[in-house]
Write a structure and sequence with these properties.
This protein starts with 8 loop residues before the first strand and ends in a 7-residue tail after the last strand. The protein has a seven-stranded parallel β-sheet, sandwiched between helices. The chain has helices at 18-29, 42-54, 69-83, 107-135, 147-150, 157-177, 195-200, 203-210, 222-232, 234-237, and strands at 9-12, 33-38, 58-63, 88-91, 138-143, 182-189, 244-247. It has a single domain (3-191, 223-244), classed as NAD(P)-binding Rossmann-like Domain (Rossmann fold, 3-Layer(aba) Sandwich). The chain has ten helices and seven strands. It is 48% helix and 15% strand.
């Protein structure tokens, strides 16, 4: 049922580690041609590209800071040049930057969090639209977070708010771009064991979260791959637009 993804040209931002890396490899497994984007994790990105190539897939890497509009434009243009166009963009790059209670939020932190999580989605998508139009259609899948629904944990207010913005801009872009044959949806992961939680969450916090999940386990990046492929496939989800799909083991049920 995912045969329509074969040879699709896919850019996955923030795909050197974690969910993005698993998603990039997932697209490659179904025959898509993939660009792995990274900001600073060059070695990790090269490892993902090599892993895809060693299994017979096509993969390239592009470096850049999606928090900067001019960099987002360049990333998209380089990806399109490497692949000969674009069919799918996965806006996965994002970061909490650090946990900070309201009293410690300043302009610099605000800019860092909003630029990375919000500006990137808007500018990458904007740059991709002309390539989709040349291809005749396109798909955008944004990565939100369970934090967008529940407000996030301690010190994660900016991140949670930014991810809520992602959910809403997903709906707006879906309306605006549908007439150009471009579908826009989002995936909202719950507690997924990635470098994000290795950096920002203690083992004690993760165990407390595990106990709130009906499936009684923390998720893995691979648990998220299927829904990204599903939303990218016109055969599987061609009439799904403007939706956010939760992937959280039942921890949050909207």
């Amino acid at each position: 049922m995912l045969n329509d993804l074969k040879n699709k040209r896919v850019l996955v931002t923030g795909s050197s580690t974690g969910i993005g890396a698993a998603v990039a490899q997932g697209f490659a497994r179904v025959g898509a041609r993939v660009v792995v984007h990274y900001k600073s994790s060059a070695e990790e990105a090269a490892s993902i590209v090599t892993a895809i190539q060693e299994t017979g897939g096509e993969a390239h890497s592009v470096q850049g800071d999606v928090a900067k509009s001019e960099e987002s434009n360049r990333i998209v243009e380089e990806a399109a040049s490497l692949l000969g166009g674009l069919d799918v963009v996965i806006n996965n790059a994002g970061a909490m930057v650090k946990r900070a209670p309201l009293a410690e939020v300043d302009d610099a932190l605000y800019d860092d969090v909003l630029d990375c999580n919000v500006r990137s989605v808007i500018m990458i998508s904007k740059a991709a639209v002309p390539h989709f139009e040349r291809a005749g259609s396109g798909v955008i899948v944004n990565t939100s977070s369970i934090a967008a629904r529940n407000g996030g944990g301690p010190g994660a207010g900016l991140y949670a708010g930014a991810k809520a913005f992602v959910g809403n801009i997903t709906r707006n872009m879906a309306k605006e771009l549908a007439g150009r044959k471009i579908r826009v949806n989002a995936v909202s992961p719950g507690v997924i064991l990635t470098p994000f939680h290795e950096r920002f969450s203690s083992p004690e916090w993760l165990e407390a979260m595990r106990k709130t999940i009906p499936m009684e386990r923390i998720g893995s990046p691979e648990d998220c791959v299927g829904v990204f492929l599903f939303l990218a496939s016109d055969t599987m989800s061609g009439y799904i637009n403007g939706q956010t799909i939760e992937v959280n083991g039942g921890q949050y049920m909207p």
